[in-house]
Amino acid sequence: MEIFREIENLERELVDPKIRKDIGRIQERLFDEFVEFGSSGRVILKSDVIADANQSRMSTYQLSDFRFKLLGDSHILVTYSSVVSPSQQVALRSSIWISENGRWQMLHHQATVVPDSI
């Protein structure tokens, strides 16, 4: 489905180091009530992501195994795997995207580290 490709591209965009520094793009892509349960165990809000935008990021992400589930007309659940370099840490990830006013925004994200990759 075309919409699934769009959501996959948005997920890839949000881990791009250049995009992570673009506060305007982050504000546009994350829902105001965005919450992330990070792989570190921290709860991360949209304001935290924006505050962190100026931090330099050396990590790169390889994303794979995307799966999508429609949760109604305006919500999509996406799950996938990531490998973070240079640590090679593997995580299982899930996001909920919501379409509001014609644009997709991430409402929720969770990353769970795969223990054997630590």
Polypeptide structure, described:
This protein has 118 residues and is of the alpha+beta class. Helix content is 25%, strand content 47%. It has one domain (2-117): Nuclear Transport Factor 2, Chain: A, CATH 3.10.450.50. The protein contains 4 helices and 6 strands, in the order αααββαββββ. It has a 6-stranded mixed beta sheet with strand order 2-1-6-5-4-3. Strand 1 (30-37) and strand 2 form a beta hairpin. The longest helix has 13 residues, at 2-14. The protein is globular, with a radius of gyration of 14 Å.
Topology:
Blueprint: H1 2-14, H2 17-20, H3 23-29, E1 30-37, E2 43-45, H4 46-51, E3 60-70, E4 75-85, E5 89-100, E6 103-113
Parallel strand pairs: 1-6
Antiparallel strand pairs: 1-2, 3-4, 4-5, 5-6
Structurally, how many domains make up the residues?
Answer: 1
Low-confidence stretches: none
The CATH architecture category equals Roll
Helix-strand category: alpha+beta
> What is the first-to-last residue Cα distance?
35 Å
Shape: globular
Task: Provide a brief overview of the structure.
The chain has a six-stranded mixed sheet.
Task: Please supply descriptive tags for the structure shown above.
six-stranded mixed β-sheet; alpha+beta; Nuclear Transport Factor 2, Chain: A; 6 strands; 4 helices; 47% strand; globular; 118 residues
